[in-house]
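To whoever picks this up:

The nightly regression suite flagged Heparan-alpha-glucosaminide N-acetyltransferase as changed. Nothing in the input moved, so I suspect the structure step. Input below, exactly as stored in the fixture:
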Amino acid sequence: MASENCENLLFDQACLQVWAYNSTNVSLWMQTEECYKCDLLKKVDLSNNGVTNIRLNTIYNLWLDLTNDSSHNNCRTLYTFEEHGVYQWNLTNNFNCSQIEEITTPQDYFMPFVYALLLIIPSFAVWFYINYLQRTNVVPSVFRFASKTDLDIENDFGTGSNEPVIIHPQLPKPVKNSSYRIASLDAFRGISIILMIFINLGGGEYWFFQHSPWNGFTLADFVMPWFCWVMGVSIAISLRSQLRSSTKRKYVFGRVVRRSIVLLVMGLVLNSVNYNNLHTFRPMGVLQRLAFIYFIAATLETIFMKSQPYFTVLKNIFLEISEVLNINFYFYC
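Regenerated output under the current build:
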């Protein structure tokens, strides 16, 4: 295998320069530490009496070993390579290996996060400051003062027309009963959606925005459970609100069936876009699974949830305790 170029390294790549002096038939074997108890795989045959450049992945720690026809394995080592770093490994004529040395300092791949925080944090600070001014009636008073001044000027100088001025009394606007929203749940749902979009767009090529291939989990593995949790909490809140408003259970169940069918059809349609091969069609996608578990959880809630009246007086910690105590046993499973 020919030596690779150490210039223009891509994301999560480093370059290892292996120098072999008076050594023949030497091969580099490697395996990621993530692959538990896996055998090392042959990466490249080293050039005799020269340097071999090898591009390596920096996501996981790597086990490295140099072997020859005599099956020497004195060089087995575990090393952590960093992005865009260049490293050197020397092999002497008596098949002794030196320590891996850093030739070019790797880049700090967290700097884009630092720049993003430097942009986001001041923006949030300005937004919170404007909200504070509005809550303290500083900003609204300015607008009210301007509108009142315009009205005074208009009263003093007239309307610029010979027509009589008709003053219409301003009636108070009717107050609409807005639906109660849980801000924390909406915020968590928004964070999950933003994370999902960012991951689907590549996640900035960061490894922790990719799904774990073997052991453990990454941030990308939390998106689906978070959506399931938000959906479960929303089911309990929505169904309890409908039952408190004296909605019949059969109508509630009809809404559950309709929403499940909508989720299922949306998932099938999205999975079939630009795909016309039934052998590669994915019938159980993400939305289909969400539709399935939504139907089961919402149906159980519709059948077993106890009807409760609205509480007009009990608006304290006892109401929250009663909400927890009235949760059905299967909700804890």
